[in-house]
């Protein structure tokens, strides 16, 4: 009887993992209020059984050191906030959602389930892309003729920047699997390659017309990394394609790109610099454990007046977004935001955790010997590494740890990295047995 119940819970957990990936695109409320809580409950019920705990720690190859680093990264900010006025004093921080890493590792325990999850994620992404394409066609005239510094962007359901950031990661996965995955059946392989190519081109098109400057920036090094892993000699060709591509872009896109350098002429870019300067000044005042949101709001508004930018900030930012308290303390940088919320103590654990992620990524090297490795794992390795790099670059100008969507996306990437780690450990154990 217990085995049957356990089997039902396991299958339900697997289905909920798929639902979490799918609902990321369609319903943030359902995901956060239904899917994630149910997944957590099922995982906790499973862990009540000794047999399941044993399976979790042994069969899933959970790295104890990495788990401790992750838990400290999650818990320390809440401890700091609790001791300094209460958990709610830091506003929108969603890193608690990193805990679903553990149910993912438990319920998506084999290659079939992992790749079914990726397929479900991609299928949902394709639906959003088709909706975004329809929106682009419907609003083309407005998009093609921007007024002043207002550049209409393209999305569907998701906010424009979340759409751009997530589609960027999907594009890197599509490119990696297009270049590195190979099905043994030649006919199936051609069909898969054509499908990947078509969806990749659609994704790239939407990324270009979305006009996210930061996504353009993070795509350049990550695409070069993927091409480098395929064949080094293709890098100059890709460079020339990128260079030539810039000159054939419509002016409504290339005009926005110039503000990456001429940032003072563009409110979107200049505001980021103002927020960074204000944030660095605030850090000097409370470097150890950070600021309460209300106190930093007051500091920011006073500093804007002091530096003569108050009217500029209100006109171009706060007058449109002031109903959300987070925007009064918005730094437009993941790392600066975290530093200001939790100080040197909090960011120390963020650094320890992400250094651990980086070291783990460097030690996974299926791509080093592509001829003798499973092409699925090679493609997944390169896709995961490039996507983690893209997420980290996006964080320079976006507060990804204060964003429900991007926290879950990064959790999924970290889960995939640890799945690859598990495969690496299993492969090494197999070699030792054979020897």
TrEMBL record:
Tell me what topology the record assigns in the membrane. Answer: Multi-pass membrane protein
Note the InterPro entries from the entry. Answer: O-antigen_ligase-rel_domated (IPR007016), WaaL-like (IPR051533)
GO CC terms for this protein? Answer: membrane
Q: State where the protein is found.
A: Membrane
- Domain of life, source organism: Bacteria
Main location per the UniProt record: membrane
Q: Where is the O-antigen ligase-related domain?
A: 197-350
Sorted keywords for this record are: Ligase, Membrane, Transmembrane, Transmembrane helix
Protein name per its UniProtKB record:
O-antigen ligase family protein
Source organism = Leptotrichia alba
